[in-house]
Amino acid sequence: MPVDFDAALAAHRLALSRGRPETLQLNVGKRCNLTCVHCHVNAGPHRTEIISGDTVDRVLDWFAASPLDTLDLTGGTPEMVPDFRRLVTTVRRGFSRPRRVIDRLNATILLEPGFEDMADFLAAHEVELIASMPCYAPENVTAQRGEGVFDRSIAAFQKLNALGYGRDPHLPLHFVYNPVAATLPPDQSELEADYKREMAAHFGIVFNRLYCLANMPIARFASWLQRRNALADYLILLKDAFNPATVPGLMCRHTLNVSWRGEVFDCDFNQMLDLTLPAPGTGKNAAPLHLWDVDPETFARLPIRTGPHCFGCTAGSGSSCGGALVA
């Protein structure tokens, strides 16, 4: 059965077009202290692809002059990049007006040697944290993220709570849930209530929101599916669950995604598939568009590149960097 995202849009008489960009999402590289089964980045401890200081300079110069209000840092583990603190400090304190900074956090990094003061740094700069926590049950976390990750994550979240995260309105702490298997996420509001009850009762942990994300059929998760001869079935599951009500809220419509090399993409998933956007006037086989060559007004008129993986964002209640798109 063909899995054609553009055909699904056409069948519902929908067009996928950009709005004005609001968020600069910067993937600072593939280095991570974990190797998770679901990772769409194929990140790990031995990856060497990370953003350079020169690229950080150019990103900061562009962002300072832009109208965008939010810098969303992802990876890999962003804190492992040498320029992470400079990025955060500059955006929070070095501009004419402070901008919002989101850190997509692998909480175990806060307990690693050399990172013991990272939680204090994040709190001092009022960085919003979005942390992976695929389940409140240890066995499910172990299956997805590895032995010992659950206990270290709990200790890290307790450390963050002690600093005010999840309690102070200036220190938001959100969790991210991904299914362990090749299934769609459950109802986000119901699962959030379960998480809050279990995390508080067993570990004394509080947090603000739970974001439910579908696993994307690319990179490491696609390989996991292929080993089980389940990739085609998962793609059909996503396609059959296509929900047209999710399309207006898709993150590609308002996010400008940038790689560790400064290349511009529609989203982090397109980045991992190397679905680059061409520089203006360079034709079909163009060099990729770089952030420092982007005008936000012109960018809003560029078409969005799609593929079968886009069904991962539109299945069921939808899936975005901020969780479910519809109730």
CATH architecture: Alpha-Beta Horseshoe
The name of the CATH superfamily reads tm_1862 like domain
Distance from first to last alpha carbon: 29 Å
CATH topology: pyruvate-formate lyase- activating enzyme
Q: Report Rg.
A: 19 Å
Profile the largest sheet.
Answer: 8 strands, mixed
What overall form do the CA principal axes indicate?
A: globular
Helicity, as a percent range: 25-40%
**Mean pLDDT, all residues:** 90
Portion in beta strands: 5-15%
Element order: H for helix, E for strand: HEHEHEHEHHEHEHHEEHHH
Briefly note the structural class of the backbone.
alpha/beta
Work out the helix count.
12
**What's the domain count?**
1
Structure explained in plain terms:
The protein is an alpha/beta fold. The protein has a single domain, classed as tm_1862 like domain (pyruvate-formate lyase- activating enzyme). The chain is 33% helix and 11% strand. The chain has helices at 5-11, 53-65, 84-94, 118-124, 138-145, 149-162, 188-203, 219-227, 231-240, 268-272, 296-299, 311-314, and strands spanning 23-27, 70-74, 100-105, 128-132, 173-177, 209-212, 255-258, 264-265. Strands 6-5-4-3-2-1-7-8 form an 8-stranded mixed beta sheet.
Task: Describe, in short, the structure shown.
This protein is an alpha/beta fold and 327 residues long.
Blueprint (SSEs and pairs):
Layout: H1 5-11, E1 23-27, H2 53-65, E2 70-74, H3 84-94, E3 100-105, H4 118-124, E4 128-132, H5 138-145, H6 149-162, E5 173-177, H7 188-203, E6 209-212, H8 219-227, H9 231-240, E7 255-258, E8 264-265, H10 268-272, H11 296-299, H12 311-314
